[in-house]
Automatic annotation (TrEMBL):
Keyword Signal: yes
Name of this protein: 6-bladed beta-propeller
Annotated segments matching region Disordered: 36-76
InterPro entries named in the record: 6-blade_b-propeller_TolB-like (IPR011042)
Residues of the signal peptide: 1-22
Tagged with keyword Plastid: no
Length: 355
């Protein structure tokens, strides 16, 4: 896992604009100040949330099982699909290699491409790290390396591009068409209307803004009720934000996500997450009133893939299931589970495990 200092240094490198006199401006740069403050802190350290995270009443997973039926007409040949989304009857995903967002039918037919590949020009991106689909079909793309937010019309044309005034890391779109971003140095999310204008900052998430660094390596998913779910790849938390910027809840996920420090081989203190616990929260998909969390357990012989399902309104654990094949990304739509793999995606009927 990337250390807090290394991650913040990377944020500075990606998100800080060039200064006429970099040496004179260094001490006044908030991200540089953050990096300096982190030098004396454990690496990485546990976020000290303003609101105490609530535990789950369930201590163990309850699995549902049944026969899975593949329903897609074909599995398309793709390069590197990540972050699947189901919207407007189709499946969207970002491509790690081509720096674009693609739209396909559930039967595997290409519909449209959003973006012009790698670059700094209109519609181009240096790194697509977050995106969302608005109710009118517009696709919003966050590019932290190019410090840019791009808005594409449904037909693929560029509507506009914006340059945020902070180190953009993650981006999502709510069901009522607010663009939600999370970056550094900050301890909160920002909400901005898709139509443009000023932004609204949410309430503080942690007591010290630099303690949110562990949450930068994660994602934002707009939910079905105007809010957004925030998660980290390596910390077992679900954080739900209301569209007005207030925190609805912070919940521990079910399972073994202990905050116990461990002693690494080289000495010092280190948070027992990610590599130490051999798991990764790889994706989150929201459908109706459910949050589906894809967890990959790194086993010695063969990885195990589990989807934990939570109630959207309160964050309570409901049940778990195992997808029929290994997947790296997940999207839920109706009675379908869409699973992203290394070079394709597959669509299965999920009625066997749905209530």
């Amino acid at each position: 896992m990337i250390s807090g200092c290394a991650l913040l240094a990377a944020v500075w490198a990606l998100g800080t604009p060039a200064q006429p006199n970099a040496a004179d401006a260094a001490d006044a740069t908030p991200v540089r100040q953050a990096a300096a403050s982190l030098e004396s802190l454990p690496d990485p350290h546990t976020p000290d949330f303003i609101q105490r995270p609530r535990s789950q009443s369930a201590s163990e997973r309850t699995f549902r099982s049944g026969s899975w039926t593949e329903v897609g007409a074909q599995r398309p040949s793709l390069t590197n699909p990540r972050a699947l989304r189901a919207a407007r009857g189709d499946v969207f995903f970002r491509d790690q290699s081509e720096h674009q967002v693609y739209r396909y039918t559930l039967d595997g037919e290409h519909v449209r491409t959003y973006g012009e590949g790698r670059g700094v020009g209109p519609g181009q991106h240096m790194a697509v790290m977050g995106y969302g689909i608005a109710s009118n079909g517009q696709v919003v793309v966050g590019d932290p390396r190019g410090r840019k937010i791009s808005v594409f019309n449904e037909d693929g044309t560029v509507e506009r591009s914006e340059r945020p005034d902070f180190g953009l890391i993650r981006l999502g779109v709510t069901s009522d068409d607010q663009i939600v971003t999370f970056g550094a140095p900050t301890s909160t999310v920002r909400f901005q209307s898709l139509s443009g204008g000023g932004h609204q900052e949410g309430e503080d998430l942690v007591r010290n803004p630099y303690e949110s660094i562990g949450l930068l390596d994660g994602g934002l998913r707009g939910d079905t009720q105007g809010g957004v779910i925030q998660f980290s790849f390596f910390y077992g938390y679900l954080i739900r934000w209301h569209g007005n910027g207030t925190i609805d809840y912070i919940r521990h996920m079910v399972g073994d996500y202990p905050p116990t420090p461990t002693e690494p081989a080289g000495g010092g203190t280190k948070r027992a997450v990610g590599r130490e616990l051999r798991f990764r929260i790889n994706d989150v998909s929201i459908h109706d009133d459910e949050i589906h969390v894809l967890v990959i357990f790194l086993e010695p012989d063969e990885n195990r893939y589990v989807v934990d399902v939570y109630d959207l309104a309160a964050g309570d654990y409901r049940y778990s299931y195992e997808p029929p094949e290994p997947v790296r990304s997940l999207a839920i739509t109706g009675n379908h589970v869409i699973g992203g793999q290394d070079t394709t995606f597959a669509v299965w009927d999920r009625s066997a495990i749905a209530e």
